[in-house]
Amino acid sequence: MAFRGWDKTKISLHSGERVDAIAPVIVSASRATDIPAFFSPWFINRLKAGYMRWTNPFNANQVQYVSFQKTRAIVFWSKNPQPLLRYLHEIDEKRINYYFQFTLNDYEKEGLEPNVGPLLKRVETFKALVEKVGKKRVIWRC
């Protein structure tokens, strides 16, 4: 079965303006930006609002609204989901499933990822996340 695009819907912005939006069942948050590590409060606020505005990082003129009306699952891609842990109950309250693609690699010596915390701290976060949400909802990526 070929993908035919996301369902479409109309949403009302905070300003009251009505705009077109896509309404995906699965939201990938996000392979390009570590939303759990750097934008957890923003993401939860957008989830509460029911939509977010997405700008294509390769073409700033391509803007799209994403509605959470039909969202049933969120895939979080992160190297440090620790900041999101305190908000998971809010996602649970919305009855949206989620799981984590947790990247654990060690480039400390090479200095390739200066904004990523020490490996041992990230391993502790991994353990805490598994304890909180269960091992079936956390995938270790290398």
Q: What structural category characterises the helix and strand content?
A: alpha/beta
Tally of helical runs: 5
Low-pLDDT stretches are: none
Compute the number of strand runs. 8
* Overall tally of domains: 1
So what's the overall shape?
A: globular
Strand content: 25-35%
Can you offer a commentary on this structure?
There is one protein chain. This protein is α/β, with parallel strands linked by helices and 142 residues long. It has one domain. Helices cover 27% and strands 32% of the residues. It contains five helices and eight strands, in the order βββααβββααβαβ. It has helices at residues 35-38, 40-49, 82-85, 88-93, 119-133, and strands at 8-12, 18-22, 26-29, 51-56, 59-67, 73-78, 97-103, 138-141. A four-stranded parallel beta sheet has the order 3-6-7-8. A two-stranded antiparallel ribbon has the order 1-2. The chain starts with 7 loop residues before the first strand and ends with a strand. The model has no long low-confidence stretch (mean pLDDT 94).
Briefly summarize what is shown:
The chain is of the alpha/beta class. The protein contains 5 helices and 8 strands.
Fill in the keyword field for this structure.
142 residues; alpha/beta; 4-stranded parallel beta sheet; two-stranded antiparallel ribbon; 5 helices
